[in-house]
Backbone:
């Protein structure tokens, strides 16, 4: 019989306690406290992290890793029940990830999730292979331990698929070394046939801070043949679709070979402070559409 490969939820998720100890949560297990040294079966009661049927619930979780990440070998849903955080840092030049999913990554909930990743190689704050969806409050900080080191930094990254950002309190801060800093990056891998591949949709409130004066920096970046859309889909006041990049970019919104659309009262403010910078660039044949929106460059 013909078969279709489907992305499955992994049977466990790998994470850390507050003392940098690696702990794997299997389906139905939890971390009862941030200093817990191992997983426990969840039958109810207090927890800071628990894993159930593909969803990682975070409730006051504060994990710390040395050269490690929250990782799922497949799709991962994260529900932030109450404010939580994860930080990782390494001085080596290997790749470093804050949160990584081999499939799709979805982050929801009413609590704010703070992710910090500092390394001397390529650094990724939020990373997935097949798309990222974020509706929860978010604070992502990526940077270098040594500012003289190479390797780009990415706040939010996906290899393929789409990025959807609808949270009403999202901040990405990318501080690079001698290589580029990216706030939101969609690699739009053309070898993967995924619906809406390469698209970036912003319908929430997003601020991108770029702190790197030595390289070419991008606030919002996607590859060829896709669309970057800012759309206040809820048509509410104040605006829901709000993008602010206050400084530090060479390219504020950049589509390598596709369209950029601002519509339905989206509110965009771009201010580089760097000479020769571009506010919005739909490169190589892409269209730029601004309809019923406030765009300040």
Residues:
């Amino acid at each position: 019989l013909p078969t279709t490969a489907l992305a499955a939820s992994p049977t466990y998720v790998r994470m850390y306690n507050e003392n940098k100890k690696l702990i794997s949560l299997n389906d139905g297990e939890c971390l009862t406290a941030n200093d817990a040294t191992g997983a426990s079966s969840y039958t109810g009661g207090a927890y800071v992290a628990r894993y159930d049927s593909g969803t990682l619930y975070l409730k006051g979780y504060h994990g710390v890793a040395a050269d490690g990440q929250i990782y799922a070998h497949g799709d991962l849903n994260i529900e932030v029940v109450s404010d939580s955080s994860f930080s990782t840092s390494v001085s080596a030049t290997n790749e470093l990830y804050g949160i990584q999913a081999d499939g799709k990554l979805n982050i929801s909930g009413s609590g704010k999730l703070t992710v910090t990743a500092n390394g001397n190689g390529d650094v990724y704050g939020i990373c997935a292979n097949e798309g990222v969806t974020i509706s929860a409050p978010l604070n992502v900080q990526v940077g270098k331990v040594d500012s003289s080191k190479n390797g780009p930094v990415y706040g939010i990254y996906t290899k393929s698929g789409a990025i959807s950002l609808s949270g009403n309190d999202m901040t990405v801060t990318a501080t690079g070394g001698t290589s580029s800093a990216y706030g939101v990056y969609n690699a739009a891998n053309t070898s993967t046939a995924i619906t809406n591949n390469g698209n970036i949709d912003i319908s929430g409130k997003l601020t991108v801070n770029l702190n790197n004066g030595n390289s070419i920096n991008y606030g919002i970046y996607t590859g060829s043949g896709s669309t970057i859309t800012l759309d206040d889909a809820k048509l509410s006041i104040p605006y829901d679709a709000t993008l602010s990049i206050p400084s530090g970019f060479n390219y504020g919104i950049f589509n390598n070979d596709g369209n950029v659309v601002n519509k339905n009262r989206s509110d965009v403010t771009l201010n580089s402070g760097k000479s020769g910078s571009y506010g919005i660039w739909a490169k190589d044949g892409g269209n730029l559409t601004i309809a019923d929106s406030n765009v300040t460059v």
Observations:
- The longest strand covers residues 218-231.
